[in-house]
């Protein structure tokens, strides 16, 4: 079942190019110029009446939702809030019939997510589920479903489900943009063309996975580590940090790079590892200045950068290079080295990679 891999997690990391292809599949028109989402039952009028979107999920699915917020706001220009499901219900969110509530759940059985879905429906919202399990509770109860075709995910640490959720959000964002006319046909086609490159680009990254073994082995010797980034890089930093904590048991924190000097910089001491994600062009200069702040305190910085960013490479101690893509799509690439670092750090520490302590694959209690 592990197809020759030592662990399910590693197999599932390597399944990602296929998961991307399958999730995009027939949802992209043959001419590559539009997104076809037959599974959305909302009429164009209903879609136009939506004035806010809530994305609700737990853990890794919540982190995918944070990327989803950027994507929908950028492409469809509708305000989006993202909440963890265990908080959502208890803060009396403003939900009306013009609210689109998107619940994201790999298993479709997470108790808090399901409860949030029910509350949203009770308030008259249209509920769209992004889930990996056909026929799951979430899938049965939602009004519409976008299924991620990642295939079964066995390892407790979510990898291919997360990246397939990103693909689902890109498809949904583009679909909404088409229907609402918030992007030109050329803009939509350009994003689709770049999306089609993603599976091959993940394959390129996976070919370099050996380079991360040594890095992860060094990180595994530390008890604390930081991830920093801005914009979409921050959303991915949160996911990288969760993955690392979950399976390597190394304490880590993800910080919006600009927030460091509001407190956390006090924790940066000589030799501490910092993983700096710097893939967003408009924010690059700012991120580099934050990298300099941690470097000045002795941090050992690994940069995750797009090909060709030589200036950035000069400001860090080492770099993992990812292939060029649109800023909006970088999460689908930049998370992969972070998944591999977590995997190899967990191995280096002799942990049970697929079954980390205290955790269950599916959290069916609130
Ligand atoms: O099945 P779900 O997507 O609803 O699960 C949500 C979280 O429990 C899950 O993503 C968890 O955070 C993962 N173990 C993280 O790797």
UniProtKB/TrEMBL annotation:
Record's keyword annotation contains Kinase: no
Recorded catalytic activity of this chain's protein: D-fructose 6-phosphate + L-glutamine = D-glucosamine 6-phosphate + L-glutamate
EC annotation from Swiss-Prot or TrEMBL: 2.6.1.16
One annotated GO biological process: fructose 6-phosphate metabolic process
Domain of life: Bacteria
Domain SIS: 43-182, 215-356
Single GO MF annotation: glutamine-fructose-6-phosphate transaminase (isomerizing) activity
Record function comment: Catalyzes the first step in hexosamine metabolism, converting fructose-6P into glucosamine-6P using glutamine as a nitrogen source.
Name of the protein in question: Glutamine--fructose-6-phosphate aminotransferase [isomerizing]
Species: Paenibacillus whitsoniae
Full protein: residues contained: 244 to 609 of 609
